[in-house]
Write a structure and sequence with these properties.
With about 170 residues, the protein is mainly beta. It has 1 helix and 10 strands. Strands 1, 2, 3, 4, 5, 6, 7, 8, 9 and 10 form a 10-stranded antiparallel sheet that branches.
Length: about 170
């Protein structure tokens, strides 16, 4: 009896190990949601904490716009970064925005910055974030509460001195 049980168990394990993963049928799509142009204050840091190097970048204002949404970024938030010795930085920006029709929305944007090397040993740079929005549920912006978003940051060019965040809704 024990022998038959062991054979059955080994057969089941072998089948699971050899099973192939099939391609997913429903790949998520992205839909552009908005662009934020964030102005920044003077950066300061706290070296050698028990968790790594802490950097704080004050958020002083800016503007945002996307299909059906437009407004200003309020002064008073900050981007809190925690860097380790391996070139990886965790980002958490917390701030509020106000739409042109007077609705306040809280934003918490978490992400990763990684300076590393690719498989061929070449330098690589990765910087992505995932903002979460808290809008009044009964407002026309309530849809922000019920979706996942991804963000591709860009550093300002030309006359704009700040960071540009292009945000997509995961459909």
């Amino acid at each position: 009896m024990k022998k038959h049980f062991l054979v059955a168990l080994l057969t089941a394990l072998t089948l699971n190990v050899s099973a192939q993963v099939s391609a997913p049928k429903n790949t998520p799509e992205l839909e552009f949601a908005l662009q934020l142009k964030v102005t920044l204050g003077e950066t300061f840091g706290i070296n050698n904490t028990q968790h790594g190097r802490r950097t704080v970048i004050p958020i002083t204002g800016g503007t945002f716009e996307g299909p059906g949404i437009k407004g200003t970024i309020l002064n008073g938030g900050a981007d809190y970064q925690l860097a380790n010795a391996n070139g990886r930085t965790e980002v958490e920006a917390i701030y509020c925005i106000k739409t042109d029709d007077g609705v306040y929305i809280h934003v918490r944007n978490r992400g990763i910055i990684a300076n590393s090397q690719d498989a061929q040993g070449r330098p690589s740079f990765y910087f992505k974030c995932a903002p979460q929005f808290e809008a009044p549920a009964d407002s026309k912006y309530g849809w922000l509460n019920n979706s996942l978003f991804v963000c591709q940051p860009e550093f300002g060019g030309g006359d704009f001195k700040g960071i540009v965040l292009n945000v997509w809704k995961v459909k």
